[in-house]
What we know:
Blueprint: H1 2-6, H2 9-19, H3 26-32, H4 38-54, E1 58-64, H5 70-86, E2 89-96, H6 125-129, E3 136-140, H7 143-154, E4 159-164, H8 169-175, E5 189-194, H9 207-218, E6 222-226, E7 245-250, H10 251-261
Parallel strand pairs: 1-2, 1-4, 2-3, 4-5
Antiparallel strand pairs: 5-7, 6-7
Helix pairs in contact: 3-4, 4-5, 8-9
Amino acid sequence: xxxxxxxxxxxxxxxxxxxxxxxxxxxxxxxxxxxxxxxxxxxxxxxxxxxxxxxxxxxxxxxxxxxxxxxxxxxxxxxxxxxxxxxxxxxxxxxxxxxxxxxxxxxxxxxxxxxxxxxxxxxxxxxxxxxxxxxxxxxxxxxxxxxxxxxxxxxxxxxxxxxxxxxxxxxxxxxxxxxxxxxxxxxxxxxxxxxxxxxxxxxxxxxxxxxxxxxxxxxxxxxxxxxxxxxxxxxxxxxxxxxxxxxxxxxxxxxxxxxxxxxxxxxxx
Length: 269
């Protein structure tokens, strides 16, 4: 009763302020948005929860589009808090073009040339690396080249959460290879965050939304959909970032694990 009362509009701001003064759990931080980027805390917390359900003891969480690095530092903070509470080891990975900023566009409306321009969001990689902890790896270069190398040769743990803030359709489409590469490692249900889908210029025929639609069209085994029910039970369900939360569902893995659980013979592939 007290918990429900605290979430009511007249009291929720005060309750949040009070909780912010206390050493609360990662779950409480995720629910009450007690972090600089609450979508990261939410995604990482749910990723660890899913890992526990699947019996996975280590995951990686990824930010595509690091720019100045404040987001990657927030992801690192979320990983540390969630790992401490859950016991699931969490590696943090950041992908970015580095000092060159946004790469060249694909050449038409799909990369929103009405909104972005090549060279935006340049990074000082050396300065950022000095601020990062040992759990975090920063990968610099065009994601179309660096991601396949990572998935094929460097990826130790299944991805549990990924944030897509690459701005462009072309870069986002390349980064979604994480979820469709034959060598991919992923939980059965992976929370995702797509940053650039709510500006006036955004529509389903360009940008991240187009990249998602095309991914779903070409992939029968993994599908990306909105995170239905993510607003339920939250004190601030009107927060706009909740509309940017999606989930990648590994349909093939879900089916296979269900068949094994029920001792059903798997079809020959």
